[in-house]
Inverse folding.
């Protein structure tokens, strides 16, 4: 019950984040205090964009990297920041997906038949945040009564995708004797845990080393 209360409040905070961004808050995907995760962090922690950006720069990489390397007992400033964000009922998988706007259950309920978003656009962030808040509220209703029909953006809310069979990756070493992939049943959602994702190169890695001023946040 406590988690449901937290999740309900989280939906409100996600909407509040969308409202602030819509009303003209500084949005820059390359700034870790004013990007997708950065704006939610502002709402949840009360810190401003410059403070969050400086905290993030204590650790190498971008938000995707910070989440993948998150440890509850770490003394890293960014891990403490993430820990505070999770205390609001936010899931680690939700935070991981926010920077790329690609959480499966949110993408499946986007408006106008959309199947993907541009994670660098303010307008697409707004669509994602509003749909995500709807999804959180729909999940709460679904857990109370799975038989209830709920619609998000004129789409019937589906808590889980159809169970599918996914082949395990083959061992690339022919000496292993493994010639046929084993098959296992999994849900489409969260097929692989975050730690098993093939990490995308961080913003700095993609562009090469840049001057510190390029990543400096405003106070």
């Amino acid at each position: 019950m406590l988690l449901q209360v937290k999740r309900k409040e989280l939906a409100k905070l996600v909407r509040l984040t969308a409202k602030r961004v819509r009303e003209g808050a500084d949005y820059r995907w390359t700034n870790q205090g004013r990007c997708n995760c950065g704006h939610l962090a502002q709402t949840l922690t009360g810190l401003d964009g410059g403070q969050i950006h400086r905290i993030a720069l204590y650790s190498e990489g971008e938000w995707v990297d910070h989440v993948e390397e998150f440890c509850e007992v770490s003394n890293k400033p960014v891990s403490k920041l993430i820990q505070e964000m999770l205390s609001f009922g936010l899931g680690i998988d939700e935070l991981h997906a926010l920077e790329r706007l690609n959480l499966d259950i949110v993408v499946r309920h986007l408006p106008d038949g959309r199947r993907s978003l541009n994670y660098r656009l303010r307008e697409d962030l707004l669509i994602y945040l509003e749909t995500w808040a709807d999804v959180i509220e729909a999940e709460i209703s679904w857990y109370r009564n799975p038989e209830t029909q709920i619609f998000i953006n004129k789409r019937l809310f589906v808590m889980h995708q159809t169970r599918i069979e996914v082949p395990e990756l083959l061992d690339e070493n022919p000496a292993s004797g493994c010639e046929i992939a084993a098959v296992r049943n999994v849900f489409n959602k969260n097929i692989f845990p975050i730690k098993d994702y093939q990490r995308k190169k961080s913003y700095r890695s993609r562009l090469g080393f840049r001057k510190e001023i390029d990543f400096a946040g405003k106070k």
In short: DSSP finds nine helices and four strands in the chain. Residues 122-144 form the longest helix (23 residues).
